[in-house]
Specification:
The structure holds two protein chains of two kinds. Chain A is an all-beta fold. In chain A, about 0% of the residues lie in helices and about 60% in strands. In chain A, the strands form two sheets. In chain A, strands 2, 4, 5, 9, 10 and 11 form a six-stranded mixed sheet that branches. In chain A, strands 1-3-8-7-6 form a five-stranded antiparallel sheet, with no helix packed on it. Chain A is globular. Chain A starts with a strand and ends with a strand. Chain B has no helices and eleven strands.
Chain lengths: ~110, ~120
């Protein structure tokens, strides 16, 4: 079946470095791709989304890149801070259903002071 | 504004008992979604509801699981005759009304952690 998956399950960085979290997807019919951050014991928190007709979108300290040719999505976090430590999930939505988010497995980001 | 509220936050049940999980959406939101998360895994979609209607239940197990979102009150996810494999975190999300062909951000609650002994 269609799925959204991640290349790297864990990522450790030093405070102040830039972080890049990657995601591969297989559903070419998806209309939106979303990044969520989940801290321990909490629900997912929306970070940023990108529509399928865009290549890049920037937020505060975060940038999402979409490469539809190779079905690849990435989240870049600038000047990573200890508070960024969490599990990051990519998700996709669209096609025939706008109510169903399909999540990837997740990447654990650890930021060392 | 209060966010999505879920209760209880932790629920312990013995095999064969029933579990009822409640979700109150954000004010003004009429769409509710339930997801299940097993340890060290991503969230898996279960069901999408509007008031008094089930829109998409493609992720619901065929037996023992049911969901409702009544005209008044919270959305309820009900698991009958729980088994150990039902142990997981169950998250509810809500969103405002969706225009046709559009996507609205889903806001997640803190989850209910179900443990089946």
């Amino acid at each position: 079946g269609e799925s959204v998956g991640l290349h790297l399950p864990t990522l450790s960085v030093q405070e102040g470095d830039n972080s890049i979290i990657n995601c591969a997807y297989s559903n070419s019919a998806s209309d939106y791709f979303i990044w969520y951050k989940q801290e321990s014991g909490k629900g997912p928190q929306f970070i940023i989304d990108i529509r399928s007709n865009m290549d890049k979108r920037q937020g505060q300290r975060v940038t999402v890149l979409l490469n539809k040719t190779v079905k690849h999505l990435s989240l870049q976090i600038a000047a990573t801070q200890p508070g960024d430590s969490a599990v990051y999930f990519c998700a996709e939505i669209g096609g025939t259903s706008y109510g169903k988010l399909t999540f990837g497995q997740g990447t654990i980001l650890t930021v060392h002071p | 504004n209060a966010g999505v509220m879920q209760n209880p936050r932790h629920l312990v049940r013995r095999r064969g008992q029933e579990a009822r999980l409640r979700c109150s959406p954000m004010k003004g939101h009429s769409h509710v979604y339930w997801y299940r998360q097993l340890p060290e895994e991503g969230l898996k979609f279960m069901v999408y509801l509007q008031k008094e209607n089930i829109i998409d239940e493609s992720g619901m197990p065929k037996e023992r699981f049911s969901a409702e979102f009544p005209k008044e009150g919270p959305s309820i996810l009900r698991i009958q005759q729980v088994v150990r494999g039902d142990s997981a975190a169950y998250f509810c999300a809500s969103s405002p009304s969706l225009p046709a062909g559009a996507y609205n951000e889903q806001f997640f609650g803190p989850g209910t952690r179900l443990t089946v002994l």
